[in-house]
Amino acid sequence: MDKKISRSELKRRAIIGAAMSEFQTKGFKATSMDDVAKRAEVSKRTVYNHFSSKEALFSAIILEMMSLLCAFEHFTFSGDIALEVQLEKLVDIEIEQLKSQAFMDMARVIIAEAVHSPELIQGAMDEFNKQETPLNTWFQAALEAGALKCQSLEIIVTQFVGVIKAFCFWPQLLQGAAFPSDEEVVAIKKTVVEMILKQYS
């Protein structure tokens, strides 16, 4: 049975959603807490009860995005399942996450402000880099088992994700491109899997 969401949590979510919309429309610096309160349909006092400052509100958006990344479906490495099959599953999970509108909306806000105010996200990104994501965990286990061979976990994960995002994230974020069709996704998956197997198995 799903846990009932409290009224306070509903308001908090509304405030974060409103802040995302305002930041995306006006930018961080031009957005006021009054703007956020008005869009969230709550009082300014309620906004401050949840977030002590605009910077704290922006940090909350970053943490929400991190939570989505860490909610990546857990798929444990197995020495009994063909590496190709496991990699295909990982690509499917990654692409499904990138299709999320919530993920894309947060990415737009964060990346826009990273260009103008990098200090806003540096602390949060430092914390995120310390966390162990499910994707990192799978690749680390594959390397430790000898199924894949690479001197750097960061290199192989970055390459894996980078090729997927080249088709399923950056064009949509920067150019408003349509998400790849099912047929295109199959081709992307094949490219990513063959690349990893060829270079690291």
Task: Give a structural overview.
It is built from 11 helices and no strands. It is an all-alpha fold and 201 residues long. It is elongated and about 55 Å long. The chain starts with 6 loop residues before the first helix and ends with a helix. The mean pLDDT is 89.
Topology overview:
Elements: H1 7-26, H2 33-40, H3 44-50, H4 54-70, H5 83-98, H6 101-116, H7 119-130, H8 134-144, H9 153-168, H10 170-175, H11 182-200
Helix pairs in contact: 1-2, 1-6, 2-3, 4-6, 4-7, 5-9, 5-11, 8-9, 9-11
Short recap of the structure:
The chain has eleven helices and no strands.
Helix/strand order = HHHHHHHHHHH
The shape is: elongated
Number of strands: 0
**What proportion strand?**
under 5%
Q: What structural class do the secondary elements suggest?
A: mainly alpha
Rg, Å, rounded: 19 Å
Mean pLDDT level: 89
User: What kind of sheet is the major sheet?
Assistant: none
Please bin the fraction of helical residues.
over 70%
Spatial gap, N to C terminus = 43 Å
Uncertain ranges? none
State the helix count: 11
List keywords for this structure.
11 helices, mainly alpha, 201 residues
